[in-house]
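Sequence, please.
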């Protein structure tokens, strides 16, 4: 699954993604990225999202100067494409998902160590951040997670006046920072779920009640996978900069311990068939987790549509009809473009839905056409069936 698809699976960024700050150059750049990424799928223009400085300040709390610095960093990383329409007096922002994929595949930049000034002999020097003393005699707290502020330019505002920071307050929640967003969608996270919900998954999740937060559930799934490999005498190494995307996705999709064990069992069987004795990695296991979840959805769809007198296609076969594709598109937040045909729309919806039988259907539908290879490249290797290249 591509990095951009994983972020969609997580839902709207009520909180920004802290791990992105190391790749994008700081917290402000990460906050602006998440806000643009959230609105991108809802944009009506192919150029991307149109937001004024005032709107972004109201939604993120970033001032005009902070927005300019954050945009410069996102452009430098290659993930932000800006299109200025001077006649319309508008600027459009679009996230380059291919550039994002390449960026996250590279190692995370190391943080520069904080340097303590070396005082000269006979003279007393205090670190610069200790110069300001509050009224109670304590040093004010300094932000450790914003290395970009030291080199951030402070250009003059467009009108020559100082712009006060907006009222977009931020609050720490579970170690992340929430950003203000003017929207009334309170059920967006629920809309990210698949076509149907299997009640047995909730019952199977009873063994995970010890983890009441996403961070707890993430740690449990990570430890379980490491333990399963240890039972085989293998050592699984989790790359926090890359593998965490998969594990957080499992948390968002309510993967149970039993389902992860089943996916691990299938992954081991696949390695045995290939006479591969290497330890499994998270990305390889993720392919089989998707297959297990697809099976869960098929079973749930069959159960919900097996009632008497119901001759309609099961909910799990949404990819076989135009109406089903449209309904699934709403679930995964992929809007239909003007005059877009159903087969073309289905390709984008199938990709946003992750691995499943809909991918096989799309590949068979386009096989033999001139765009077949283009469809394969668009879906990406992570979504292709495990035996695609066999």
């Amino acid at each position: 699954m591509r990095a951009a698809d994983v972020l969609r699976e997580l839902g709207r960024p009520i909180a920004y993604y802290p791990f992105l700050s190391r790749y994008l150059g700081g917290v402000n750049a990460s906050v602006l990225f998440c806000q643009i990424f959230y609105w991108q799928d809802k944009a009506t223009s192919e150029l991307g999202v149109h937001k004024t400085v005032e709107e972004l300040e109201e939604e993120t709390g970033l001032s005009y100067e902070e927005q300019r610095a954050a945009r410069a960093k996102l452009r430098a990383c290659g993930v932000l494409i800006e299109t200025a329409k001077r006649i319309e007096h508008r600027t459009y922002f679009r996230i380059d998902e291919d550039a994002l994929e390449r960026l996250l595949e590279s190692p995370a930049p190391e943080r520069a160590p904080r340097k303590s000034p070396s005082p000269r002999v006979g003279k007393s020097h205090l670190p610069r951040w200790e110069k300001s003393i509050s009224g109670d005699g304590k040093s004010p707290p300094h932000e450790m997670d914003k290395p970009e502020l030291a080199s951030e330019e402070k250009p003059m505002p467009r009108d020559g006046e100082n712009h006060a920071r907006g009222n977009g307050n931020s609050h720490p929640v579970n170690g992340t920072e929430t950003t203000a967003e003017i929207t009334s969608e309170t059920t967006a996270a629920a809309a990210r779920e698949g076509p149907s919900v299997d009640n047995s998954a909730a019952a199977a999740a009873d063994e995970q009640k010890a983890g009441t937060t996403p961070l707890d559930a993430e740690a449990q799934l990570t430890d379980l996978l490491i333990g399963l490999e240890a039972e085989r005498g293998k050592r699984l190494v989790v790359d926090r900069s890359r593998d965490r995307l998969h594990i957080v996705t499992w948390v968002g999709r309510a993967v149970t311990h039993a389902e992860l064990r089943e996916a691990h069992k299938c992954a081991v069987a696949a390695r045995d068939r290939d006479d591969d004795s290497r330890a499994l990695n998270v990305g390889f296991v993720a392919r089989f987790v998707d297959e297990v979840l697809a099976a869960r959805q098929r079973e749930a769809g069959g159960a919900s549509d097996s009632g008497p007198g119901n001759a309609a296609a099961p909910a799990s076969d949404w990819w076989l009809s135009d109406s089903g594709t449209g309904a699934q598109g709403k679930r995964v937040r992929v809007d239909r473009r003007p005059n877009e045909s159903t087969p073309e729309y289905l390709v984008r919806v199938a990709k946003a839905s992750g691995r499943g039988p809909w991918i096989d259907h799309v590949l068979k539908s386009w096989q033999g056409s001139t765009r077949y290879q283009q469809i394969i490249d668009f879906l990406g290797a992570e979504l292709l069936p495990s035996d695609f290249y066999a």
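The longest strand covers residues 80-85.
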